[in-house]
Specification:
With 625 residues, the protein is of the alpha+beta class. The chain has three domains: 14-210, Aldehyde Ferredoxin Oxidoreductase,  A, domain 1 (4-Layer Sandwich); 245-427, Orthogonal Bundle (Aldehyde Ferredoxin Oxidoreductase Protein, subunit A, domain 2), CATH 1.10.569; 438-615, Aldehyde Ferredoxin Oxidoreductase Protein, subunit A, domain 3. Helix content is 37%, strand content 13%. The chain has 26 helices and 17 strands. A six-stranded mixed β-sheet has the order 2-1-6-3-4-5, with helices on both faces. The protein has a six-stranded mixed β-sheet with strand order 8-7-12-9-10-11. It has a three-stranded antiparallel β-sheet with strand order 13-14-15, with helices on one face. A hairpin with a 6-residue loop joins strand 4 and strand 5. The chain starts with 13 loop residues before the first strand and ends in a 10-residue tail after the last helix.
Length: 625
């Protein structure tokens, strides 16, 4: 397949464009300039969507593109280069939307001949897409429609071979649940932003990728691999933690530190004294089978034995959403809810949070057993699992909850809106801004609202001076955190656009980002250039939102996570987030308008985003409610 001779190494060199309505597909070369300046993944994906669809499109309509993207590290031999990202306009938030997952799908997509697949239109009946070393085939998916993701994965592997990798939706995506995700390998889920609903609206059941096409990488790749595998083996950063327990190892400590929200963000650690019952020791006691993503020496995820069978382990976010958020200490019930979310294709964060919202509404008498069909008290994990299935299938009261807590509160009314913990419809993740206030800024200021993995101070001490010089404990000293977010976010944007796992990145030193990119692509990325690429991506995604009429300075926020009022006990007692302070600092650092949050035209041109500078309209009356 011909490609631009100036394209850096590390790329397949082609993107695949698919028209589902007409069942046609064609390819285009990946531009070298895009690769150098936007890296890949949602960096290049943001430019594609910005140029190929106007503002204001219906996220569930034919004009909204759905992209499956990779970065230059995806599928390379660089450790932790396993990630792929789905990009689209989010039907959940109305903003820029993306979701990220690991496993082997990204590697196989590149080995099939493409760096990305972008789909538009709506198929006239259910289809799935097969991409095999440059060849594209549309298959009828009528026999798969209505099947869960486990059944779909098994059926397609039996048809296309065990080496085929599949990204698919379950019944939640088919039913256009706004909190539906896209599932790979049964438990690697691109869960956020409602991307599964977009896939379901297009009647695209699955994408199957398969291939053995080689991807050329730079000569320094082998040396970089040795260096960073060595760091993970030497225990740098969080590598020992991830290798030993994976993210489930965080649940007990996060509960005790008041990082994990409790009782729908209204409680403190004293309300959940039996955290050990859902911790890693209890989870792994019956036995564990570790699994790893492509090219990763850490192997942080896997399956656990329950009643003699292997079931997916719940990651930290899942355990927190179905555990302390709901006051559930029944580990079997949490495992059941996690398994159902994976099967049906639901985002566990939003699903668990929405059920916690419903439990509070039940406690307060805003909804009753006659509406739900059964009691829904705090701590009833089995009732929560019943609701997961009902939400995915839009059955009974599940239809009220199927689109997240914002939609549920609008349907219930009766003052329930005060108990829905979301930003623009995206239920908040399981990390509390009252402990680390910088997260409160991230939840608002990133183009994908309510996301914890877009920036943050989750760095270990030897790297912290690069980002957060002279900053004390967050909740006691919030000055400077808004300014620091520009740098933190830029690094995280490049890590994700490159196709690296940010957990893996946190198991290395900060030099990993530039070193790995330089080794694989052959382009000498300095740390300053990494930051410039990240700033470019941030401005492009923000411009997408401004064009959609979203103003981050006017977004309504839930009160509790921001300490309004503060908790009265526990490690974060009295803590409140100084959002206005941090937001002003961040807008200053980015050069964005303090009233509209619009990017600065001159800076856009300096970043090489002339097409945005020339197109970006004057923002309308601030929206975002």
């Amino acid at each position: 397949m011909n490609q631009d001779p100036s394209l850096p190494t590390g790329y397949a060199g082609r993107i695949l464009l698919v028209d589902l309505e007409n069942r046609t597909a064609w390819s285009e070369p990946l531009a070298a300039d895009d690769a150098l300046k936007l890296i890949g993944g949602y960096g290049i994906g943001a430019k594609f969507l910005y140029l190929h669809q106007p503002g204001g499109v219906d996220p569930l309509g034919p004009e909204n593109w759905l992209g499956f993207t990779t970065g230059p590290l995806t599928g390379s031999s660089i450790p932790m280069g396993s990630r792929w990202a789905v990009v689209t306009k989010s039907p959940l938030t109305g903003t820029w939307g993306d979701a990220n997952a690991g496993g082997w799908f990204g590697h196989q997509l590149k080995a099939a001949g493409y760096d990305a697949i972008y789909c538009r239109g709506v198929a006239d009946r259910p289809v799935y897409l097969e991409v095999n070393e440059g060849q594209v085939t549309f298959h009828d998916a009528g026999h798969l429609w209505g099947k869960d993701t486990y059944e779909t994965d098994s059926a397609l592997k039996s048809l296309h071979g065990r080496d085929a990798e599949i990204a698919c939706i379950g019944q939640a995506g088919e039913n256009r649940s706004l909190i539906a995700g896209i599932v790979h390998a049964r438990e690697r889920v691109a869960g956020r932003s409602g991307v599964g609903a977009v896939m379901g609206a297009k009647q695209l059941k699955a994408v199957v990728v398969r291939g053995k096409l080689p991807i050329q990488v730079g000569r320094a790749t082998a040396a970089a691999k040795r260096k960073y595998v060595g760091q993970t083996n030497d225990g740098v950063g969080y590598s020992r933690f991830y290798q030993t327990t994976g993210t489930p190892g965080a649940i007990v400590g996060c509960i005790e530190a008041a990082d994990a929200p409790i009782r729908n963000w209204a409680g403190s650690p004293s309300d959940f004294p039996e955290a050990e019952r859902i911790g890693a020791d209890a989870l792994y006691r019956p036995g564990r089978k570790k699994r790893t993503c492509w090219g990763c020496p850490i192997a942080c995820w896997g399956d656990v034995y329950q009643a003699g069978e292997l079931v997916p382990q719940p990651e930290y976010e899942t355990a927190a959403a179905f555990g302390p958020m709901q006051l559930v200490t029944d580990l079997q019930a949490i495992l059941r809810s996690n398994d159902l979310c994976n099967r049906y294709g639901l985002d566990t964060i939003s699903t668990g949070s929405t059920i916690a919202f419903a439990m509070e509404c039940y406690e307060r008498g805003l909804i009753g057993e006659h509406e739900i069909g059964f009691p829904l008290p705090w701590g009833d994990g089995h009732a929560a699992a019943r609701l997961v299935e009902m939400m995915a299938l839009r059955q009974g009261f599940g239809a009220v909850l199927a689109d997240g807590s914002r939609q549920a509160a609008q349907r219930i009314g009766r003052g329930s809106e005060a108990y829905a913990m979301h930003v623009l419809g995206q239920d908040l993740p399981m990390h509390d801004p009252r402990l680390e206030p910088g997260l409160g800024l991230v939840y608002v200021a990133d183009a994908t609202p309510g996301r914890h993995n877009q920036a943050g101070s989750f760095l270990f001490p030897e790297d912290l001076p690069v980002f957060l010089p002279d900053l004390g404990e967050g909740r006691r000293n919030q000055v400077g955190r808004g300014k620091a977010m520009k740098t933190l976010a830029a690094v995280f944007h490049v890590v994700q656009a490159a196709g690296a796992c940010h957990f893996g990145y946190l198991a290395t030193t900060v030099s990993y980002v530039g070193d790995a990119l330089a080794a694989v692509t052959g382009h000498p990325y300095t740390f300053d250039e990494v930051l410039l690429c990240g700033e470019r991506i941030a401005n492009l995604r923000q411009a997408f939102n401004v064009r959609e009429g979203v103003n981050l300075t006017r977004i309504p926020l839930p009160a509790r996570p921001y300490g309004r009022p503060p908790l009265t006990d526990g490690p974060t007692a009295g803590s409140a987030v100084q959002l206005e302070l941090m937001l002003d600092e961040y807008l200053d650092a980015m050069g964005w308008d303090h009233h509209t949050a619009a990017p600065n035209e001159r800076r856009l041109r300096e970043l090489g985003l002339n097409f945005v500078a020339e197109d970006l309209p004057e923002p309308q009356v601030p929206t975002g409610a």
